[in-house]
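Comment thread on ticket #2218

A.B. wrote:
> Attaching the input chain for the structure job we discussed in standup.
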Amino acid sequence: MPDLGKYADTVLSAYAASLVLLVALVVLTIWRGRKVRREMETLETRVKRNG
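C.D. wrote:
> Ran it. Output below, let me know if you need it in another format.
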């Protein structure tokens, strides 16, 4: 790891915050995708049932 000197805390906290935000974005995207997929399947079955 490179020597960051007196800015080590700032740089490492920025990396940590970025990592947390990226993980949150991926999790929310997957969660939303599953929710939309369930809604689409429900709608498709309703349409098929009603003709």
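A.B. wrote:
> Thanks. Noting for the ticket: Helices lie at 8-50.
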